[in-house]
From TrEMBL:
EC number: 3.4.11.2
Organism for this UniProt entry: Nocardioides agri
Name the UniProt record assigns to this protein: Aminopeptidase N
Pfam families xrefs: Peptidase_M1
Enzymatic reactions: Release of an N-terminal amino acid, Xaa-|-Yaa- from a peptide, amide or arylamide. Xaa is preferably Ala, but may be most amino acids including Pro (slow action). When a terminal hydrophobic residue is followed by a prolyl residue, the two may be released as an intact Xaa-Pro dipeptide
CDD domains registered for this protein in UniProt: M1_APN_like (cd09603)
Cofactor(s) required for function per UniProt: Zn(2+)
Length: 478
């Protein structure tokens, strides 16, 4: 007797209907994958809840209003999201209380637990939907992964931090693996200025409030998006076809304001120098912002780094602008790769000094190597794995040894493979991986390809061994 399926197939054919392959509805082997909830993390072991599996955010259109008197941020963000696999629901990273979610214009169910916003909407592989998330809350009250990132005073606010910042002011797929187009509209009292990434495209005044819109021409990863609201002095221009804009807080001490502006006005000059070293600047505009607030660091926000009062110096300016290539254009594949960002940016501090009458980078490497005894804690960590446990990741991935040993490794590599291969390596790295991510394994493989040398021992000594590298030519020291 014929099986049931052949009879059903014959009936379907007679009626002009298509019969689904066996196993599709049941999720059997050989059929399509059954929809499932999207994972609440993208797969980075350092921060298991960062990013979200199963989705790609194509664009963000952020509309936020910030009340400096109460510290309240409210508004909505429109996201265009593409499914990477069949999902029964998907997640976003966000900390503020959500009031509603709409998908394709219709209300959607959602749940929110700490850092995770789960949206109850089915999404097919390759399907793109528009999502609007509305919210309101006080960012200064929230923390995640040990970070309380909101930086605000009575008259100024700046959204700047890493490795996380976005979830304090817009819902995001918050990991460097997912970059997207970003437009930022911020509403504050009309007496205040707003500065953000890219170019200002609009400012609309309504009563006592003004909404200022900035748009970046190139996609970026979420933590590199920023805005600042306050009273700023702005300077702008064009150098060899590249538009630049810098802003200095009027709330800085009187004596510091002209120094800050003079420093930031060197941004296009330093950017041009860096382009001569490693290749074309990867974005369509450049600049910087000096805030009066003091987080204790500067940050490489894409196209417009932010500088705190304590970080207003030329070496830091070079460092943050070098990040436009190493960190912004080529983002880390995982946070364990952070030495690629910080080591390269610190190396370019050394390189700038040696090309402007300062200490040669090779001499700097030798001095720092000799200054640290073999039993110093400086050597007790792995540069390419700075966070062996989740509990101390935020502090350890930005520990001094990541910057200093990372830059030492890069200069030692320069010594080992020679000038021609070294600069070819850096230029190929930013040219071939620009707009994407890069990992330690990919960098080391490219170094071996360019140089034609077996560098396993070299990279083991500098990146994966918790001991001081031997003082040998093979390690770039002899």
């Amino acid at each position: 007797m014929p099986g049931v399926r052949p009879l059903v197939a014959a009936l379907a054919a007679a009626l002009g209907l298509a019969l689904l392959p066996a196993g599709v509805l049941a999720g059997e082997a050989g059929g399509e994958t059954a929809p499932r909830p999207g994972p609440s993390g993208i797969g980075d072991p350092y921060f298991p809840l960062d990013g979200n599996g199963g989705i790609d955010v194509v664009s963000y259109d952020i509309h936020d209003r910030y009340d400096l008197a109460t510290g309240t941020l409210s508004g909505w963000t429109d996201l265009r999201i593409r499914g990477l696999e069949p999902l029964s629901s998907f997640n976003l990273d966000f900390l503020l209380p959500v009031t509603s979610v709409h998908v394709a214009g219709a209300p959607s169910g959602f749940t929110q637990q700490r850092h995770e916003l789960a949206v109850a909407h089915r999404l097919g592989a390759g399907q793109t939907v528009d999502v609007r998330v509305r919210y309101a809350g006080r960012p200064g009250r929230y923390s995640y992964a040990g970070e309380g990132n909101w930086l605000a005073g009575a008259g100024e606010v700046v959204a700047m931090n890493q490795p996380h910042m976005a979830p304090w002011w817009f819902p995001a797929n918050d990991h460097p693996r997912d970059r997207a187009a970003i437009r930022i509209s911020i509403t504050v009292p009309k007496a205040l200025d707003v500065v953000a990434n890219g170019r200002q495209v609009r400012r609309k005044v309504r009563g006592d409030l003004a909404t200022t819109t900035w748009r970046a021409d190139e996609p970026m990863v979420p933590y590199l998006a920023f805005f600042a609201a306050g009273r700023f002095k702005v300077a702008q221009g064009t150098r060899n076809g590249l538009p630049w804009l810098v802003a200095v807080s009027r709330a800085l001490p009187t004596a510091l304001k002209p120094e800050a502006m003079a420093l930031l006005r060197r941004t296009p000059e330093v950017t041009e120098w860096l382009a001569g070293e490693v290749g074309p600047y990867p974005f369509s505009t450049v600049g910087g912002l000096a805030t009066s607030l003091e987080p204790g660091f500067a940050l490489e926000n894409q196209t417009r780094p932010t500088y705190s009062p304590a970080s207003l110096d030329l070496a830091t300016l070079v460092h943050e602008l070098a990040h436009q290539w190493f960190g912004d254009s080529v983002a880390v594949e995982s946070w364990s790769d952070i030495w690629l960002n910080e080591g390269a940016a610190t190396f370019f501090e050394w390189r700038y000094a040696e090309t402007h009458g300062g200490t040669p980078a090779a001499a700097r490497l030798r001095a720092e190597y000799d200054a640290m005894a073999a039993d110093d804690d400086f050597w007790a960590n792995k540069v390419a794995n700075p966070c062996p446990t989740y509990q101390n990741c935020v502090s350890s991935i930005f520990a001094p040894f990541v910057y200093q040993r990372g830059s030492m490794a890069i200069q030692a590599l320069r010594n080992r493979i020679g000038e021609a291969d070294f600069w070819s390596l850096l230029r190929r790295w930013v040219a071939e991986r620009g707009g994407a991510t890069g990992s330690t394994a990919q960098f080391t493989a490219l170094a071996e390809e360019v140089s034609g040398e077996d560098l396993d021992g070299f990279f083991a000594a500098w990146l994966t061994s918790p001991t001081k590298p031997a003082d040998t030519a093979a390690n770039g020291l002899g």
